[in-house]
Amino acid sequence: MTFQDFNFDQKLNEGLDSMGYEKPTPIQQQAVPVILQNKDVIACAQTGTGKTAAYILPVINKMIHADHRHLNTLVIAPTRELAQQIDQQIEGFAYFTGISSIPVYGGGDGATWDVQKRALEQGADIVVATPGRLIALLAAGTTVFDHLQHLILDEADRMLDMGFYDDIIKIVNYLPKQRQTLLFSATMPPKIRALANKILNQPEEINIAIAKPAAGIRQEAFVVYDAQKEKLLSHILKTYTWNSIILFASTKETVKKLDSAFRRSNIPAKAFHSDLEQTEREQILRAFKNKQVNIIIGTDVLSRGIDVEGISMVINWDVPPDPEDYVHRIGRTARAETTGTAITFVNEKDQKRFSGIETLIGSEIPKLPLPEFLGEGPVYNPQVKRKSDFNGRKKRFRKNRNPNAKRSS
Question: What's this model's pTM, rounded to 2 decimal places?
């Protein structure tokens, strides 16, 4: 199958040709025809499967043939980086069509606010927005959705994880009830089902099973104590072959600590987190894409908000909370049929979680011996209940116990 089979307008096909698109991915093959039929869609597809093109191409094609031009489509995304990425892709697809888009996100100065407000009032064809900034603009009286025809929620599960449920519902209340709604999510937990039931109308369901890690990714793990991680990382940087690395940590606080540790060791790296100004974050991503910065440190938000080719290594400082986040993290390397390495540090308390990752991907990840200078690490046995687990249960029991209950003698 090729994109010609969708019978897109020639102007849109020219944009696809210029971007090197030839064959649609599975999510594109399934979603595009349904969206062209004006049906609501709930689709489960992970990052890297081509979902942006899956929802935006049929929408652009419909807009080309529309009788009137107005603010036609609203795309809501969880992060500034993803909003910018989507906007850039729209710009490429729509290059020969004359259709315009604008990203709307927080950060920046008053001038940025004014530009975004003016764009909403004057009516770009497509708006790609983060929930917080869009709510603020709507609260300021910028209401221009009278003729909106498409609402698209991208990375819906991530938005709910970030606490945007109420904001999404507020935004939906500003929109026409007669519209096409498309919900794309990497996972499909009950809370996503509940949201879909609330805002979608008899949706067609598309489910692209979570992909196994690419064959080109060499996966490795080291079972370590936390105190050994910093020296192990230094050893990997010196002995492995690499040109660019993403180092993932599960919390912003850990990202900041790693940034400080890199500075002490004179390792050139950049930390990427929400406390930075928007201009700083954009500069870091641009420098990383241009190979001016070779190591970037971030949380799982970065795993879904960055699309950079040529990343040779992903290092997980800790095991991600959700097994599917592991697939997202390591999927940043070995893109476009290249090869890469993914290394995970597994401490005592993360062993059971790491075992869940192996269950999800259907294979065991090799646990490599630590370098001799580090000494022995903990024994890998994810079935053993750790003392910390027992203490946690004991604390919960004390908290929930009825203080008026009589103790047995």
Answer: 0.66
